[in-house]
């Protein structure tokens, strides 16, 4: 009965008023233990022009994030057993840049403010107006997309920026300390890049940085975080990767870069790079230490003549 009644309301809202918020492509995932609310929200969003689905717990949510990559997650805070560290666990996961909107009870407001506001993009208090949910999702999708482009990424290369790297490194570091989840850090620096600028000019130098970044990104797994650290220096945060596998990844990148020819009119520019890899282990007590160790390994690769990886 509730469903039929709601269906009618939804019809009035969306069909008779011809209000559509989505384009049928944006995938919204609803995480809630409350099946009635979730079913109604799914129906409401589909009628409003989104594509929508529902999960009931965190494991299912992480599975869907890995396999179907939703564009936005509406997360009812009821899926967490507060007091357990489940919520903190979730904030440690890379939700692959997916904006989260929390649905909270009034009683959960203090927790939203104190504990979780850093990992959500927006929140809605129950009871909510269905029309408001659809409006908010539309608006948040747009706001998030410009936030992601301007705040998380480097404008020239489209790699993540340094502050995003540091933020994600802290999360991986926490995961290692809590769950012993391995990870590695790899620094990459283009060999003799300054000569390219000096000979061909900065415009060509910029093109080289862009094409290098694109080629590296195409050689990585989805979960690897590729960032521009500064100038011609890049860093890759590699979750679930030990040192040996990170070195193998560096050699795969080297193979791709060695076949890259960058057209600069008069000639094709060929590139090589030096890499330094450091795997997280118990001797490392801070994020700074692992950065320094990977950077030192990269410096050793340069000192040894470049175009190689040191660990
Ligand atoms: P090495 O092989 O020892 O690393 O030498 P290198 O010439 O690659 O490295 P170095 O660090 O001396 O020079 C990096 C240069 O990159 C210097 C700087 O002017 C240039 N650079 C930094 N950012 C940009 C950028 O955004 N665009 C361009 N075109 N050049 C940049």
Automatic annotation (TrEMBL):
Residue positions where 4-aspartylphosphate is found in the record: 76
Task of the protein: May play the central regulatory role in sporulation. It may be an element of the effector pathway responsible for the activation of sporulation genes in response to nutritional stress. Spo0A may act in concert with spo0H (a sigma factor) to control the expression of some genes that are critical to the sporulation process.
GO cellular component: plasma membrane
Keywords of this entry: Phosphoprotein
Response regulatory domain boundaries: 27-141
Annotated organism of origin: Calorimonas adulescens
Domain GGDEF, first and last residues per copy: 181-311
Name of the protein: Stage 0 sporulation protein A homolog
GO biological process: one example: negative regulation of bacterial-type flagellum-dependent cell motility
Parent-record interval covered: 82 to 392 of 508
UniProt-recorded Gene Ontology molecular function terms: diguanylate cyclase activity
């Amino acid at each position: 009965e509730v469903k039929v009644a709601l269906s009618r309301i939804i019809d009035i809202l969306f069909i008779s008023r011809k209000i559509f918020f989505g384009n049928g492509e944006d995938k919204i995932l609803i995480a809630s233990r409350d099946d009635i609310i979730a079913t109604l929200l799914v129906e409401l969003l589909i009628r409003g022009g989104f594509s929508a689905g529902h999960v009931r717990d965190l494991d299912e949510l992480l599975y869907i994030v890995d396999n179907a990559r939703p564009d936005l997650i509406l997360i009812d805070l009821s899926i967490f057993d507060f007091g357990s560290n489940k919520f903190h666990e979730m904030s440690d996961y890379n939700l692959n840049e997916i904006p989260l909107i929390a649905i909270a009870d009034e009683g959960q407001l203090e927790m939203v403010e104190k504990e979780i506001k850093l990992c959500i993009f927006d929140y809605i208090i129950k009871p909510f107006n269905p029309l408001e949910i659809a409006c908010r999702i539309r608006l948040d999708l747009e706001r998030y997309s410009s936030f992601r482009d301007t705040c998380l990424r480097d404008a020239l290369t489209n790699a993540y920026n340094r502050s995003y790297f540091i933020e994600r490194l802290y999360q991986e570091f926490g995961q290692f300390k809590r769950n012993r989840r391995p990870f590695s850090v790899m620094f990459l620096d283009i060999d003799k890049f300054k000569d390219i600028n000096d000979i061909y000019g900065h415009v060509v130098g910029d093109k080289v940085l862009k094409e290098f970044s694109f080629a590296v990104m195409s050689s990585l797994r989805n979960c690897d975080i590729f960032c521009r650290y500064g100038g011609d220096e890049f860093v890759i945060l590699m979750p679930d990767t030990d040192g040996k596998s990170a070195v193998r990844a560096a050699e795969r990148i080297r193979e791709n870069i060695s076949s890259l020819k960058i057209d600069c009119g008069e000639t094709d520019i060929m590139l090589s790079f030096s890499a330094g890899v450091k795997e997280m282990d118990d001797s490392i007590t801070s994020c700074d230490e692992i950065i320094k160790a990977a950077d030192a390994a990269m410096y050793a690769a340069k000192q040894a003549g470049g175009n190689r990886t040191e660990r």
